[in-house]
Every structure is written in structure tokens, then in C-alpha cells.
Design a protein that fits this description.
single chain, 207 residues, alpha+beta, two-stranded antiparallel sheet, 9 helices, 38% helix, 17% strand, globular, binds flavin mononucleotide
């Protein structure tokens, strides 16, 4: 399959809807990464965006471990991935592990919203990446035990996702044909009627 990156993106971008910011339709999760590193400013800016996410009591519980290519942290995050993710995500120039302080430092009580807030910050990160012409692909497929041990993460931090970040690559960068197939598979979403209700299970009239 010899589609260019822009041809792949034409297949993958969601249809534009008037009034919705284009970045929401353009962001998607490729697995093909180019062999191109990010500048320090490009990397800093995705975290700058994440930093401004809202959080419960403004606790900002998110902490990100950032591994750039060939660093010990990149190697350790890669090591913790399940085999399926290991195969493609190792090519990403940046591997990030999102964690969240699961205790409210002001009260000492559990912060039930820590991972929720980390998710919000991670969404900001992925959208900022898309706005910068980068791609970000989140993964739950990793061993928490291995990540915690290798990266020496304290017990009071909950683990979120691993994020592969970089420039999108050609389909040829993918290590096997199954991944090429998945890269080209249609993206699916539930209709609004299944996710927005006026009463329980009654689709809201939105338009
Ligand atoms: C929390 C989370 C965990 C995910 N885990 C994996 C994973 O382990 N491996 C993988 O290839 N993709 C993973 N994904 C990517 C999803 O499959 C992808 O986001 C979803 O199919 C929607 O596609 P899109 O991001 O291109 O819109 C994960 C995404 C999220 C948000």
C-alpha cells in the first residue's frame, strides 16, 4: 500500500462540522512515526497546553515522565509496553507516561478525580500536538508493575496512559501488514443520540 501521509490523513480525518474547531476532527492516533526528533520548544509546548487543563480543586495532580529517543526513560517506558505496542511505539521519538497524585496534599484524603484530571490534561496535550503538526497515540497496553519498578514511581501516584509522540510517518514505517490495515481502518464513533440524553436513555434534541 503506497498512500502518502496526506492521503492517509484524508481517510482518517473526521468529517468537518461547521462550528466545531477543525483540530477535533483532524486529531487521530496513528502508529507510524517518522524518524524525526522534536525540538525542545515543540516538546515544551505540548506540556504547556496540558498544564492549563482544569482540575478538581485546582490540584493539578498530573506528573508526566518524558523519555526522548535513546534516553533511559524512553527505554524503560518502552520496556513496560505489551508486545503489540512495543513493536510500533518504540519508533516514536518521545514516549511519555502520565501519572497522577492520587492523594489530596491539602487533606491527605484520596483524590478520586486524580485520573480524571490526568485524562483532561492528556487530551489537551494530544490536541496541542495535533495543532503543532505532531501526532500522539495513547496506550493502556503496558505493565503497571514494570513501569512502576523501572521508573521508581511512588505508590501514591496512579498510572494513566503511555503516550507515543512524534511526527507522523509513512505507512512503510510500520513493522507489519496488520498494522498497515489498522492504520487505514475507518474511525468510528457513536451517534450523538447514544451519548447525549434529555432523560435517561432518551436522546436529547440537539439540532
Ligand atoms: C486510554 C487509552 C488507551 C489506549 N490504549 C491503546 C493501546 O494500548 N494500543 C493501541 O494501539 N491504541 C490504544 N489506544 C488508542 C485507541 O484505540 C484510539 O484512541 C481509538 O481507537 C480512537 O481512535 P482515534 O484516537 O484515532 O480517534 C488507546 C487510547 C486511549 C485513550
Amino acid at each position: 500500500m503506497s498512500l502518502s501521509i496526506s492521503e492517509v490523513n484524508r481517510l482518517k480525518h473526521a468529517p468537518h462540522i461547521e462550528g466545531v474547531l477543525p483540530i477535533f476532527h483532524e486529531r487521530w492516533s496513528p502508529r507510524a512515526f517518522a524518524h524525526r526528533d522534536l525540538s525542545a520548544a515543540e516538546l515544551a509546548n505540548v506540556f504547556e497546553a496540558a498544564r492549563w487543563a482544569a482540575s478538581s480543586s485546582n490540584l493539578q495532580p498530573w506528573r508526566f515522565l518524558v523519555g526522548t529517543r535513546n534516553s533511559a526513560t524512553h527505554n524503560k517506558i518502552h520496556e513496560a509496553l505489551v508486545d503489540f505496542n512495543k513493536e510500533w511505539a518504540g519508533h516514536a521519538p518521545v514516549l511519555i507516561l502520565g501519572t497522577a497524585l492520587a492523594v489530596n496534599p491539602k487533606t491527605g484524603k484520596p483524590n478520586a478525580y486524580a485520573l480524571y484530571d490526568l485524562g483532561a490534561a492528556t487530551s489537551y496535550l494530544t490536541l496541542q500536538a495535533a495543532a503543532q503538526g505532531l501526532v500522539a497515540h495513547q496506550m493502556a497496553g503496558f505493565s503497571h508493575e514494570t513501569a512502576r519498578r523501572l521508573l521508581e514511581i511512588p505508590e501514591n501516584y496512579a498510572l494513566g496512559s503511555v503516550i507515543a509522540l512524534g511526527y507522523q510517518g509513512e505507512l512503510a514505517a510500520l513493522p507489519n501488514p496488520t498494522l498497515v490495515e489498522r492504520e487505514l481502518a475507518p474511525r468510528e464513533r457513536k451517534p450523538l443520540s447514544e451519548i447525549a440524553f434529555s432523560a435517561w436513555d432518551v436522546p436529547a434534541t440537539l439540532a
